[in-house]
Amino acid sequence: MSDDCLRSEKRENLRKGVYILPNLITAAGIFAGFYVIIAATDGHYDRAAWFILVAAIFDGLDGKVARLTGTSSKFGVELDSLADVISFGVAPGVLLYLWALRPFGKLGWLAAFLYVICGALRLARFNVQVSTVESRRFVGIPIPAAACIVATCVLLFYELGGTGTIKMFSMVVLVFILAFLMISNVEYLSLKDPELFKRQPFLILVVAIMLLIVVVAKPEVMLFLVGMAYMVSGPVVSFLGWRKKRRQTNEISPES
Q1: C or N terminus of the chain, fewer CB within 10 Å?
Q2: Where does the pLDDT of residue 204 fall: very low under 50, low under 70, confident under 90, or very high at 90 and above?
């Protein structure tokens, strides 16, 4: 089939329409991400942080709704990637700069840009590897998770009253860590793993309910701790896996 025929077929598919529900949810995520920028520009940094979490909820819903209703499409996948760049790349980058990095001047906005470009590279790599990488694992920390970690840091500082030098330098460190983790080969658990939604021991349900209660009681602190735990889990699991492989290699290698 020639390129002209392929292009004609794609145009014809779009003329038939697009699926409303999942794409509407994706559009709501873009709206939340855009409002993050508006709120941060107006100085409402805590509100901007909450809307990053709202965007993450929409990001988790659109794919699940598309799969449950059988309305997945190439158009939806592409729109979702663009939404991620806006809501979890540009929006947190603007929030980081205006809230904590502006006193550093040019170095501040360059650090914020580093976060944005590494997030975009992470998404591009995911898109080209999506059919070859195990669905149970992410290679590099997902950009929605990185954005949520930024948001929970902002909320924690507002909860604890942290300001000044501590806020600025801690966020600079966090930006470089997240930027590195997004483009690294460190593996992270995917919440899209089908095994997570199968039958689990009763104790797992009890623990999940207790965790939910604690998060609701003190969301700013607990969401921060959950985010930090997820960020650290990748390097820790990778290190333990590397040690295990090294030990196995030493055991099977002949003694000199």
Answers
A1: C
A2: confident
- Listed ranges 25-34, 188-197, 247-256; the one with the highest mean pLDDT: 25-34
Q: How far is CA 166 from CA 100, 120, 170, in A?
A: 10, 28, 6
Rg (CA), the chain: 21
Using an 8 Å Cβ cutoff, are 68 and 123 in contact?
Answer: no
Sequence-distant (6+) residues with CB within 8 A of 117 are none
Q: What is the pTM of this model?
A: 0.84
Q: Which tokens belong to 39?
A: 């709120």
User: How many CB atoms within 10 Å of residue 221?
Assistant: 16
* Signed CA dihedral, 73, 78, 84, 86: sign only: negative
- Asked if residues 32 and 84 have their Cβ atoms less than 8 Å apart, the reply is no
| Residue partners of 243: CB distance under 8 A and separation at least 6 | none
Query: Domains of the chain (ranges plus CATH)?
Result: 3-252 (1.20.120.1760)
